[in-house]
Prior knowledge:
The structure is a homotetramer of 193-residue chains. By secondary structure, chain A is mainly alpha-helical. Chain A has two domains: 1-54, Arc Repressor Mutant, subunit A; 73-188, Tetracycline Repressor, domain 2, CATH 1.10.357.10. In chain A, 75% of the residues lie in helices and 0% in strands. Chain A contains nine helices and no strands. In chain A, helix 1 (3-23) crosses helix 2 (30-37). Chain A starts with a helix and ends with a helix. At the A-B interface, helix 6, helix 7, helix 8 and helix 9 of A face helix 6, helix 7, helix 8 and helix 9 of B. Chain B binds a DNA duplex (21 and 21 nucleotides) through residues 1-2, 4-5, 8, 29-31, 39-43, 45-46, 49-50.
Amino acid sequence: MGEKSVQKKKYILETARKVFVDKGYKNVTMKDIVEACEISRGGLYLYFDSTEQILLEVLQMEADEADDVFTKNITQEDTAADILTLFLKEQKKELLQKKNSLTVAVYEYFFEHKSTDKNNMLRKQFDAGVRVIEKLIEAGIASGEFYCEDPKGAASNIMYVLEGMKIDAQTFGITEKMVDEQLLYIMQGLIIE
Amino acid sequence: MGEKSVQKKKYILETARKVFVDKGYKNVTMKDIVEACEISRGGLYLYFDSTEQILLEVLQMEADEADDVFTKNITQEDTAADILTLFLKEQKKELLQKKNSLTVAVYEYFFEHKSTDKNNMLRKQFDAGVRVIEKLIEAGIASGEFYCEDPKGAASNIMYVLEGMKIDAQTFGITEKMVDEQLLYIMQGLIIE
Amino acid sequence: MGEKSVQKKKYILETARKVFVDKGYKNVTMKDIVEACEISRGGLYLYFDSTEQILLEVLQMEADEADDVFTKNITQEDTAADILTLFLKEQKKELLQKKNSLTVAVYEYFFEHKSTDKNNMLRKQFDAGVRVIEKLIEAGIASGEFYCEDPKGAASNIMYVLEGMKIDAQTFGITEKMVDEQLLYIMQGLIIE
Amino acid sequence: MGEKSVQKKKYILETARKVFVDKGYKNVTMKDIVEACEISRGGLYLYFDSTEQILLEVLQMEADEADDVFTKNITQEDTAADILTLFLKEQKKELLQKKNSLTVAVYEYFFEHKSTDKNNMLRKQFDAGVRVIEKLIEAGIASGEFYCEDPKGAASNIMYVLEGMKIDAQTFGITEKMVDEQLLYIMQGLIIE
DNA sequence: CATGAATGAGAGTTCATTCAT
DNA sequence: GATGAATGAACTCTCATTCAT
C-alpha cells in the first residue's frame, strides 16, 4: 500500500469516526460511510470489509493518539493529588462533551462482542485505569497527601464511578454539578484534612 | 380486546422479552419476534406496531413486577445496614446473572432515545435508587451503625458504581470476586468499626 | 334475509357510498368500509364479497333513486327549451358539487371494467341522455323554439360536453363561469333569435 | 449519472410506459415495472422512487415528443379548415387507438392529484387546446372559410367534446362512426356552406 | 486503484379472507 | 347472524456486496 493509499485510509478513518460519533455503531452502514467520505461504494471496500473493521481501526487510531496525550501528561512534575485531580478533570471533560464522543459506538460494539479475554480493549483500559490510580494513591499515601486503607478498592471505585457516569451521560444526561459533587466526594475520601 | 387477547399479548411480551435478552434491542426485528412467538407476521401487528413499542411494554411489565418485589422486601424489619447489604446483594445477583438480563437492550434503546427529561426511565430509576440508599444511610447514622459526612454523595457513589459494574458486566465481564471486593469497600467506608 | 338484514345491508351501502365519494374506487378497501360502518370484518362478508360488489350495489341504489327524481321532473308541463334548460341546470349542479359525487369511483371502476356491451351502465346512461335531449330538441323544433338541422348530433354534442366537463371537474377543476359559458354557447346554437 | 445510465433510464421509462398503458396507474406496482424491465428490485430504485415519479417522467417524455410532432404539423401551409380537420383527425386517431394510450393512467393519476393550479398538466393541455382551436377559428373567419359568433365558446365546445369522447372511449367504448358523426357535426357548425 | 451500476436477500407493513366461538 | 383474532400473500424499500469497465 503506497503513501497515497495510507493517506486515503487515514482520511476514511477520520471521516468514519465522525459518523460513529453521530450515529453510534449499530446505526452505521457502509453506505453512510461511503456518503460521508464522498467516495465510491467499491472504493471503500478496497480498504475495509465492514463497519466492524472500520470501527476497530478507528479505535486503534484513537488509542495511539491517546498514548501521545498520556505521555505528555506524565511529564508533569506535580504531586499525586495534583495528578489525580488532573486525571479526574480530564475524565470530567470527556464525560460532559456532547459532540465528540465514541462512547455509544464503543458500548454498542462491545455489547455484541463481549469477551472476558485479557485483550478486550475496554478491560485493558479499565485495568490500566485502576493501576494508574492505585499507583497515584499509593504515591499520595507515601507523600502524606492521602489516607487510604484499600488503595486498590479505592482505585476500582473511582473507575466504576467514571464508567457509571459515562453511561448515564449517554442515556439520561448528567450535569456538571453532579459530576463535580461526586468527584469531590471521592477526593474527600482520600485527602487528609 | 377480549380476555383471550390479553393473554396473547402477555404471551408475546414474555416471549419477546427472551428475544431482547438474547439479542439486545437493535438486533431484534419484528420477524425475530414473530418467529419466537410462532405466530403469523400479520398477527404480531394486531398487538404491536414496532419493536420499540414492544420493548417499552416489556419494560413496563418488568417495572410492575419489580414494584411487587420491592414491596415484599420493604416489609423486612432489619437494621439499615442489613437492608443496605440485602439491597446490594440483590444488585450483585442481577449483575452476575448472564442469562436473563435486559440490560443491553435497555442501554441500546436509551442510547437512541436519550432524554434528560424527568420521565426518562433510567433517570427515574437512578434517582429513586439514590433516594433509597440515602435514606438507609441516614437511618444507619441515626442508629449508630454508619458514619458518613455526605450521605447523598455516598448514595450517588453507590449508584454510579452499580451502573459502572453493570456496563462492565455486559462488555468485558466482571467476576464475583470483583463485585464482592467493591461492595466490601463501599460498606467499609460506611460502617463504624 | 330478514327485514333486519335488509336494513343492515342498506346501512352498509349508504355508509360505503360516503367512502367511495371520499376515496374513489381503487383506494377503498374492505377494511375502510368495515371501519366506516363500525361493524366487524366478518360481518361485512356476510353481506358482500368485495368492494366491487358493494360499489355496484351502491350504483344500483343510486339509479333507483335517480329514477324517482327523473319521474318528478318529467311531470313538468314546460316548453322544450324550459325542460332542456332545467336538465342542463341539474347537470351543472352535479358538476360543481364537490362533496357528494361518485364520479371518480365510477370512472375508476369502469376503467377496469370497460365493456362495449349494451348493458354497460355508463353507456346506457349516455344513450338515454342522448335520446332524451334529442326528443326535447325535436319537440322544440316542432314548437318553433329551436332550429337544428341535426338533432341527434346536437344531442350527442351536449352529452359529450357534459362528460368532458365532468372529467375536467374531477381532474383540474372547473369554475361555474366556465360551465355557464359553455351551456350558454350550446343553447344559443339551438334557440332561434 | 453517465451516458449508460441515461440510456437505461430511458429504457425503463419506455418499458414502464407500456405497463401504464396496460394497467393504468393505480394498478401498477414497482414490482410490475421491475418485472417488465427484467431488472432487479433494487435496480429500479436507483432511478426512481415511486410509480408516481415514473409516471410523471413518462408524461414528461411524452410531452417532449409531442412538441416535436406539433412543430412538424405547424409547418404546414394549409387553410384554417384544413388544419382544424387535421387536428381533429389526429385526435380521432388517438381516441380510437386501443393499444397505446396512457389516458386511463393519466386520469387515474389526476383523480388523486387534482389541483386547480395553473400548472396542472391536464389544465395546461386543455387551455392550450382551446387557444389553438380559437386561433384557427378566427383565422378561418378572417379567410371567409368559417362563420362563428363565439370562437372561444366553439373552441371550448370542441375541447370538451374531445375530453368527453376520450373518457367514453375508455369506459364503454366508442365507434369510429360515432366519432365521425360528432366531428362532422362540429365542422358543419363552423363551415359556411 | 477507483467507480458506480446492479443484484438480491431480507425487513417492514397492510389487507383480503377465513373460521372458531 | 355476528364477532374479531389469525393467517399469509403481496408490496415497499434498503443495503451489503460484487464486478465490469
